[in-house]
Fold these 3 entries.
Entry 1:
Amino acid sequence: MAKVLINKYFKNKSIFTLEYKNKSTENEYKSSIKELKFIQMRYAPFFTLFFYLWLFLIDFALATPEQLKYAQPFHLTMVFILLTPFIASFFKSLHKIIYFALLLSPICSTIGNIFLLKIGMIIFLPDIYLIIIWVFIMPGFYFYQSFIRNIIIIIITAISYLSFDILSIYHLELHIIYILISFVIGMFASYYMEFTNRINFESNNLLAKQQDEIKIAHKQIKDSIEYASLIQRALIPLKGTMNPYFKDHFVTWIPKDKVGGDIWLFNDLRHKDECLLFLIDCTGHGVPGALVTMIVKAVEREITTMIRVDKDMDISPAWIMRYFNRAIKQLLRQETKDSLSNAGWDGGIIYYNKRTQILKFAGAETPLFYIDENKEFKTIKGNRYSVGYKKCSADYEYKETIINVKEGMKFYCTTDGYLDQNGGEKDFPFGKKRFTNIIKKYHTKPMKELQDIFTKEMMNYEAMVADNDRNDDMTLIAFEIDKN
């Protein structure tokens, strides 16, 4: 994996250095890693200082008074050198001396080692070379810098041996061995850190690119859904459309998402006294449900056109529902064996003739509730059969109910999103019983006030469960019969 990355991104593939083939990428990398290396150069020598102070304290236990007297200046010098890059990093004007101090620390350590050997403190030799290693590994110095540093140390050691003849051959060899160990460890550690930093840089770039792509895709999807919502809302009847037909009414239409599978439609027909009201709950919600509502709207327009053309047609919600069933199955090719489209809808269709005071209702898995002229609550059950779907027969005969309405009668119809919404103390569905109890208790209220009561009751019920999500789209329609 590493070899593939090196061949793909870097122009120099030796262990001595890595550099991006793309110059702008190389500059971007150096800019991104600059802060990390600066932090390393600030804190690496500072933490190394604590290790060195530990060695300093050992002097008091292991060194003789004479050795301690001569070793103190060396130790104090090393403490100062190790503190310099940490202090200088807080002053912008002193930043340039950080590298000088980091380079000076191993040189000073080498000279100090020679001095300590001269006074017989050989025991500190391995420990002090650990300082050399960590001071250069942690700041992220790269190979050629480590190489120069080690060459300088070797030269100083050799000159000291030749000039002062203070080291035996054994001590010189030991000295060189520690230098080489420091060199090898520092070289590979620095190379590994550099390569790791570049891999992290690549990963971060890839992640940033993917995040940008996700943001773009999210914006495109969001914009598309927002526009789709505008289109779907344009299909919903305008406010006040039902005013000429009913004494009072309200419609609550709440999609679960920006778009939904619930839709309600209203059309006047051949004269101003008769109308059709559709309450449709299509398969699913969100975008899939919204697509099915487009089909519903197309079929509804076809049906209302047929009715307006045929002046003598006996309008039957049951026949309309059967027509819908066949049309959807045909449009979605559900009759074929290999069809994967299993969409349809539940809902109710209401025909109302204000002049004759006749109301006809047909429902698909959807009931119609009403308060009659004697203020009694009644329910008209819908067919236990949906519209569309592969399992539904194209020849199914839906039933309809005819009611002779009178002034003051109130009718209510809702999709299952309201009834099936979870909440309450036990996180159960709202249910038909709670719904009908609201009607029985508050049916004397004006429609606007009753609408607010339905909304408030649902919100309170949902709020009983923490982080409760809306299950489905909700649509609720209620109207009151006016006098003839």
Entry 2:
Amino acid sequence: MSTAYVHMPDEIECAPKEIRDHYCRMIRDGQSESWALMCALQTPPGTKGSDRAFMQGRMNNQQLDEMPVNQARYISKEARQAGISIEGKYYCGGIADKRGWRDPRAWVSGNDDILNVAKERRLMVSGSVNYDPGVAPPKRVKMSESIIREEAKKYKKLHPNLSKGEIRHMVIEKHSYKAKNRGV
């Protein structure tokens, strides 16, 4: 390679003279550009799952720069009105609730934020963070009072001599969910 000119990436051009010289020496010695860049800047390569890799190009709200100006202003304004500081954060719509960009948990600073929200909201996420909550256990709720009243009317016709309490107990025993190994 010629000693007169070495193509320098932007990161190297903006760096101090010693770093530029180190990069140029490595290129002249036959090293690849990516290896020389990594060694000269003393930065390890980005890896999947690291906050550095996830937030690269996202730290200063670059996502808003890629939107139409009016839309970016609108989103920024509404997020601030909702009490959210968007500085140094990235809006991750895949984990947002129905409030969208007004959801403070959807503005993340790194992978840990995404993982915490995914666990809390039982969301399946894949990409920089991989999390699968699995099948949710069924929610068991008490039998609706309206159902109990409707069924009690039917039972009262069949058993007119029983008290309200006894009829209520019969309805609940007959129509409510019975878990296995409950002992009943």
Entry 3:
Amino acid sequence: MTAASIMTSRLYTIKPDDSVADALLLMHRKQVRNLPVVNDQGEFIGLFGLNRLSRLLLPISASEMGRFSLSNLHFLPDESALVGERWSEVSGQPVVNFLEKKSKLRYCTPETRFPALLALLDESKGLSLPVIVLDGETRKLVGMVGAWDVLEGIVMGCLIGGKNGGESE
């Protein structure tokens, strides 16, 4: 099984200058957790998703704490006004200002095989893997692989006698 055999190739993408509000609206409409950010040539720029958005909406004092887990912030007041203030600050800004950190992102190519996909997904801490084709210095986005794609590929492979999910005859 390779990334090409299980990747999602019908992607919902956004441009670097799209607003955070537009990104959230698209994520809600399409029921996706992460949106690849691409330029006009289809080159992968970064990833914007619900994890990043959650951190953007925290009060500034919480986001300045450095490395934290969302589950360890029970001491914060339950003030929807604070979230509303943060939303007002970030909703109109371009997503390029808030992409996932490069250190968190992992990539694969269409030829990346199953064991390497599992390792990359584990390292990505819940983020989907952009599937890219290198064209010189350009990283052309051709798909995404998430945990559900891998699970579906395994199940479909087992159900239909070793045939990879995502392929049809």
